[in-house]
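Write out the 3D structure for:
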Amino acid sequence: MPPGRAARRGVLWVPDWPVAAAVAEGVADPQVPVAVHDNRGVLVASAPARAAGVRRGMRRRSAQQLCPELVLLPTDPVRDARAFEPLVQAVETVVAEVEVVRPGMVVFLARGPVRHVGSEEGLAELLVGTVATETGAECQVGLGDGLLTAMLAARAGVLVPAGPETTAAFLGGQDVGALALAASTRQADAETAELVDLLRRLGLRTLGAFARLETGDVAARFGTRGLLAHRLARGLDARPSAARRPEDDVLAATELDPPAARADVAAFAARALAEQLTERMLRRGVLCARLQVTARTEDGNELVRTWSLDGAPTAAELTDRVRWQLEGWLAGRSGRAPSAPLTHLELAAQEVSPAGAVQDGLWGRSLRGQVQAGRAALRVQGLLGAEGVLVPVLQGGRDPRSAARLVAWGDDPAPLRRPDAPWPGQVPAPWPATVPSDPVPVGLVDAAGATVRVDARGRTSAVPARVVVPAPERPEGPAPVAAGEYPLLAWAGPWPVTERWWSAEGRRRAYLQVVPDGAPALLLAVERGAWQVEGVYD
């Protein structure tokens, strides 16, 4: 390949794959409008749903207003990967080596398959026909110089002629947001989103405008991620090809004893193996662009699949891909399922490159303690399961309890509700520092010992005088407030909140801040006449 030229690549893409996977798994009816969401909004909508006006990014309520018969399904990466394995196996009957970028998209080097078939048009037709015959899925194939060119060509269903001039003409008018297509890890996705936002604010809204910048200027202004994106915008590969492989592959392998016939059994070994592979790459100071998963069965057969990576994948991301692949092999839907239980699992980090070229974060490298804490969390997850280690994520809400969300360690720590959105009726600041995992029931009484009530207009029935904290029936750890009766030094409120008053799910409650004598300040809430501690100002 001449210097400065990108490899000729092909991409096979299945539109609306999460919906197609749900249909393949029998979860959705192809004739009914379907949308897949992630609790923040619509991710993918089927053709009937789009015809009714449902669009990506739309809120669920808005989508249901436009299309009352819409079927909403939660996103399920395991389902997407499991249903995608038969399609990848169909592609392998035409192309010898394929890489899975994400469920719904595979990439391959086009030179060899084109020579075998005879033409690029013939290869595209053969792939589309083979996938439709063996799996029933409708796909699109695109060929072009460089990964991003091939991805955009597949989405358009075209074959971009080889050559820098035709590639530049094809990419020039594309929006810079297309750079996100090449990101396959959370870090790369987040960095690319920041870069795209910055480019748009600078007026560089197309790939052509970005590509015309000088490489030195891009490096000085946008760093390593900007350089990688600049190469993609120019129709090149993200990293220049080397005459020799600078680093050996990094391997991690384990024997499965007893042999694993189910994906959930093999997933425990996969988690430990992914952590081991990440630790070895960290010690060597390298990153990988491909992850190869190899499994051997009791009767000696071997299964191999390669996943494409971008950026610095975490152990959790490597675990996800291995778990998805095991689901694809062992779920029973694969066209070539394992002939016997798995006895050996091996992970290979390929296309290894030094990590020194990776730009540090704005505040420098992660501290050693942070890295060690992350490894410890992954080990605990391997023992207790993914939900055994949870981390809080701040999000929008009217009260401290709804503004905190717990997610499994390694999952995307993204809020489901915008923190910066207006929240009418929000409890005034300051918010409590501690929120009990479960509300603590208490009593709020007046000087005569009667329960203080709050009417529909937000008025108290009497002046609060004491907080009564009963002893817990079954103590489980230290209580946020010790049992007892505390006279009040001060109080503020109430603040009534009514949510979703138009539906059966509506809630009406009121909040009160109190300062007891001999106990920390508390945030109390009353709902249906019962008071409880919602937060502690400690």
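Residues 8 and 145 are 5 Å apart (CA to CA).
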